[in-house]
Design brief:
- This protein is of the alpha+beta class and 424 residues long.
- It has 3 domains: 136 residues, no CATH class; 142 residues, Alpha Horseshoe (Serine Threonine Protein Phosphatase 5, Tetratricopeptide repeat), CATH 1.25.40; 112 residues, Immunoglobulin-like (Sandwich), CATH 2.60.40.
- The protein is built from 13 helices and 8 strands.
- Strands 3-2-5-6-8 form a 5-stranded antiparallel β-sheet, with no helix packed on it. Strands 4-1-7 form a 3-stranded mixed β-sheet, with no helix packed on it.
- It starts with a helix and ends with a strand.
Length: 424
């Protein structure tokens, strides 16, 4: 739509709104001579701010606003509310005793509305919006200016300067800087806030994010130290879970990433776009953890995952198959190896191989854990199960070939596990 039609439709809509407003205001004035308007401007504004705050709380709960957007909006409302609260209440309007007021308002209300818009508003923004819609690629820089966040930031900066020990002001300033992507400034503000309140998990994770983005978007080192420390104090901190999941994914520890994303998803409104994004990330991490990440597609050609675990938390050995069962193998079979606690339950480590050649050398460690809270190093003894799957799925089925060893001590080497039976 070109600028002419955009501006025209705006003024038509404005005229209709004014006509509707007059339709509500004028009849009572023309019918009655004595109408009293006793509401003060300050009280009306406070009521409006309260309603806007409720709407923002609802949007936050429904996932329509991020925590940073919510804090920025809340800061702006609080600043405007503070100005009105400190201002003198408007004098109570005098009772209307004449129909003359109705006719006067009919003339003044439209004039005042248009006058205030041209004085306080930005009529040229209508044309800018229309041009942006017509040519979106040429207007990537035009969106920021409409929201006067600069004044809001200035007020909080002045507050931190007047009271450098105000931790809440530093925290709000840091979150606002992060919301407008002023990351180096956010780092400094978070440093001030944490110096005053060093045990607040939300400040730790916010600081970690700011450091990571300012430092090339890497979470290794100090950012993850902060994240893990925050999650120790608050296991349900959303930003901490998100950053921990992202870091685990970057490090190709997909099982751990899936765990963090799953935990985070439980805390979010299920229908929110953010929750859907986290669910997709969880699914992808789970898919990778069950494939090449927690197992090896070439188990016979190279060892089975010799990383991320000390010798005391590993199992090393070979899987072989009984001679009587070799004829039942095919090139399409998939080999799975699971370690479970001696009492049973979900696997604490798992491997997968599509190279069905025996003997197969393996090494299980905490790096193959499906759940970071349920890993090999948590147990002294485990049960090992090797399976040749005809369907290619980890769940056993009729006709699959299996072998089991019980009471295997964690840390054992030279384990020999033989596949010697057919599942009924």
């Amino acid at each position: 739509m070109n600028p002419f039609w955009t501006v025209s439709l705006f003024w038509i809509a404005t005229a209709i709104c004014i006509a509707v407003a007059l339709a509500f205001v004028l009849p009572p004035l023309l019918r009655k001579k004595d109408v009293a308007a006793k509401a003060a401007r300050r009280d009306i504004n406070i009521a409006v701010y309260r309603d806007q705050m409720k709407e923002m709380d609802a949007d936050l709960a429904n996932g329509l606003l991020s925590d940073e957007q919510y804090q920025v909006g809340k800061l702006e409302l609080e600043a405007r509310l503070a100005e009105d609260a400190l201002a003198k209440a408007d004098a109570t309007m005098a009772p209307v005793a004449s129909r003359r007021l109705g006719f006067t308002m009919a003339g003044l209300l439209p004039a005042a509305a248009f006058g205030l818009y041209f004085w306080l508003g930005n009529p040229m923004s209508l044309i800018s919006i229309a041009e942006a819609q017509a040519n979106p690629q040429a207007n990537s820089q035009a969106v920021q200016g409409d929201h006067d966040i600069a004044k809001m930031i200035q007020k909080v900066e002045e507050k931190t300067q007047s009271d450098p020990k105000d931790a809440e002001a530093w925290s709000m300033l840091a979150k606002t800087y992060a919301a407008v992507e002023r990351w180096p400034d956010a780092v400094k503000a978070y440093e001030k806030a944490l110096a005053l309140k060093p045990d607040v998990p939300a400040l730790m994770t916010g600081y970690a994010e700011a450091i990571a983005i300012s430092g090339g978007r890497t979470l290794q080192g100090k950012p993850m130290e902060l994240v893990l420390k925050a999650l120790e104090k608050a296991p349900d901190d959303p930003k901490g879970l998100e950053l921990a999941g992202i870091h685990a994914f970057q490090e190709k520890n997909y099982a751990q990433a899936a765990y963090y994303f799953k935990h985070l998803h439980k805390l979010l409104p299920p229908d929110s776009p953010y929750a859907q994004d986290i669910m997709e990330a969880q699914k992808e991490a789970t898919r990778l953890s069950r494939g090449a990440a927690t197992g090896l597609d070439n188990l016979s050609d190279q060892g089975a995952g010799k990383a991320a675990a000390g010798p005391a938390a590993t199992l090393h050995g070979k899987v072989d198959i009984a001679p009587a069962l070799k004829a039942k193998m095919s090139d399409k079979d998939v080999v799975f190896l699971f370690a479970r606690s001696a009492e049973g339950g979900a696997p604490v480590a798992a491997l997968r191989s599509t190279a069905v050649k025996f003997p197969l050398e393996f090494e299980l460690s905490d790096a193959m854990a499906m759940n970071p809270d349920n890993k090999l190093s948590n147990f002294k003894e485990v049960t090992l199960t090797a399976r040749i799957s005809k369907s290619g799925q980890p769940m056993g089925g009729a006709g699959d070939l299996e072998g089991t060893l019980v009471r295997v001590k964690v840390g054992s080497k030279d384990i020999k596990l033989t596949i010697d039976k057919i599942r009924p």
